[in-house]
């Protein structure tokens, strides 16, 4: 399979995976895509850095000797398929279960957020996971929060709770500035045991350089708006504001340091190993 290099470079990684799946579906009409591949076809907004770029398919048999390192087979004795944008994929519940089985836990939690947004129920997922022995879902479910606006926010939430055991925040909490009446939505919101209110805000560098996001305003104007937002949040009762970037999420020790320094509470009851990663058990 081939694509023009210039065109290929313009595609975001999840879209590249969708193009790859569509081409493979023509060569292998019996393949049913699952896991990460199906998640991309379903546009579940998994952060790019968390993608393994392995092609994952469901099949009635296990791995074959002819399989290469970029092909991952997941055994489904009673394989089913749905057609999404012309590509055969596993049903939503199977996609969710296979993401738990194969993906890095924080990425799997992000995929689960998207699955629940798309209509998956907890009962369906638990039934499917019990049938195929994916017991890790019991540990991951407390970390799921479909309130995230996008995959970046969802992944950051997973890192906070699943990797470091911080207390699960509320997300997109509306806060009204008593001076102006304007309503702001906090990305992450905690009320500590002593009543202290902490808000964490995920900044994106794009909003400082993308004219569509800045409204063609200068960087100084955007920064001034952010300062006014912080003042408004303080007037609305917020005591501490933590600003972080997605680069802090990738280098997660920096995010941990910021949240810990601000006094964000933890709810860490222990940890367990899932797919080679330690995952916090929270109450």
What does this structure look like?
- This protein has 283 residues and is of the alpha+beta class.
- The chain contains 13 helices and eleven strands.
- The strands form four sheets. It has a four-stranded mixed sheet, sandwiched between helices. Strands 1-2-3 form a three-stranded mixed sheet.
- Strand 7 and strand 8 form a beta hairpin.
- Helix 2 (13-27) packs across helix 3.
- 34% of the residues are buried.
- The model is unreliable at 205-217 (pLDDT under 50).
Structural class: alpha+beta
Compressed to H and E, one letter per element, the order equals HHEHEEEEHHHHHEEEHHHEHHEE
- pLDDT averaged over residues: 89
Radius of gyration: 21 Å
> How many E-type strands?
11
Q: What share of the residues lie within helices?
A: 40-55%
| Share of β-strand residues | 15-25%
Terminal Cα separation, in Å? 48 Å
Main β-sheet description = 4 strands, mixed
- Taking pLDDT < 50 over at least 5 consecutive residues as the criterion, the unreliable ranges are 205-217
- Taken from the alpha-carbon principal axes, the silhouette is globular
**Tally of alpha and pi helices:** 13
Lateral arrangement of strands in the main beta sheet: 6-7-8-9
Draw up the topology in text.
Elements: H1 5-9, H2 13-27, E1 32-33, H3 35-41, E2 55-59, E3 71-75, E4 82-84, E5 87-89, H4 92-102, H5 105-117, H6 122-132, H7 137-140, H8 151-163, E6 170-176, E7 183-191, E8 197-203, H9 206-209, H10 211-214, H11 219-235, E9 240-245, H12 246-250, H13 252-262, E10 268-274, E11 277-282
Parallel strand pairs: 2-3, 8-9
Antiparallel strand pairs: 1-2, 4-5, 6-7, 7-8, 10-11
Helix pairs in contact: 2-3, 3-4, 4-5, 4-6, 5-8
């Amino acid at each position: 399979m081939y694509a023009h290099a210039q065109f290929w470079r313009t595609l975001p990684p999840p879209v590249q995976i969708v193009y790859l799946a569509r081409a493979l579906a023509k060569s292998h009409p019996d393949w049913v895509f699952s896991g990460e591949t199906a998640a991309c076809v379903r546009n579940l907004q998994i952060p790019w850095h968390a993608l393994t770029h392995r092609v994952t398919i469901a099949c009635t048999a296990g791995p074959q000797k002819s399989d290469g390192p970029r092909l991952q087979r997941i055994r489904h004795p009673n394989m089913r398929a749905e057609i999404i944008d012309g590509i055969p994929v596993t049903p939503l519940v199977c996609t969710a279960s296979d993401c738990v089985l194969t993906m890095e836990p924080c990425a799997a939690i992000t995929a689960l957020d998207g699955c629940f947004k798309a209509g998956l129920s907890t009962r369906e997922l638990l039934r499917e996971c019990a049938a195929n022995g994916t017991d890790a879902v019991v540990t991951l479910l407390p970390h799921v929060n479909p309130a995230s606006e996008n995959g970046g926010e969802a992944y950051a939430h997973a890192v906070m709770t699943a990797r470091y055991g911080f207390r699960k925040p509320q997300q997109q909490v509306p806060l009204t500035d008593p001076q102006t009446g304007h309503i702001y939505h906090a990305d992450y919101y905690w009320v500590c045991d002593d009543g202290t209110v902490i808000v964490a805000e995920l900044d994106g560098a794009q909003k400082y350089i993308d004219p569509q996001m800045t409204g063609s305003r200068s960087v100084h104007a955007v920064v001034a708006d952010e300062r006014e937002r912080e003042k408004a949040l303080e007037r609305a009762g917020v005591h501490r504001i933590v600003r972080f970037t997605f680069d802090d999420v990738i280098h997660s020790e920096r995010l941990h340091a910021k949240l810990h320094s601000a006094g964000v509470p933890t709810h860490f009851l222990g940890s367990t190993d899932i797919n080679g990663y330690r995952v916090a058990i929270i109450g």
